[in-house]
Amino acid sequence: MDWTYIQANLDWLGHIVEAIVMAAVVALLLRALFERRVAVLMGLAFAIGHFHGREKRDFEVSVNMKPPHLEGYEMWKWSFDQMTDFWPTALVILAMAVVLHRRWR
Questions:
Q1: Phi, psi values for residue 23, rounded to 5°
Q2: Where are the transmembrane segments (predicted)?
Q3: Residue 1's pLDDT is what?
Q4: Full-prediction pTM beyond 0.85?
Q5: By CB atoms within 10 Å of each CB, which of 32, 35, 53, 84 scores lowest?
Q6: Which residue, among 50, 84, 85, 78, has the nearest Cα to 62 in the 3D structure?
Q7: Among positive and negative, which fits the CA dihedral 13, 54, 98, 91?
Q8: Which residue from 2, 94, 100, 101 is spatially nearest to 48, judged by alpha carbons?
């Protein structure tokens, strides 16, 4: 398997898998404090926030942005690679949260 090709062209898929695993771990930890449904939704929200923060930080570093880094929220200035790491991951995790929330109502 050519890992260079996967890294260059399918990096976003790895981020989606990583976000799902991260959401599951956070949900398991929060299960001690919250009802299962709430813990799962909180885990999914955490995963979305994590990827936004990571890609924002990558953008800030790539352009040598000075603090307070408020311009890092201008996602339309991110590179194609930074956008394609965050947006597919966020949309997949958000869709999972919406489907689960509707099913549990």
A1: -60, -40
A2: 12-30, 86-104
A3: 65
A4: no
A5: 32
A6: 78
A7: negative
A8: 94
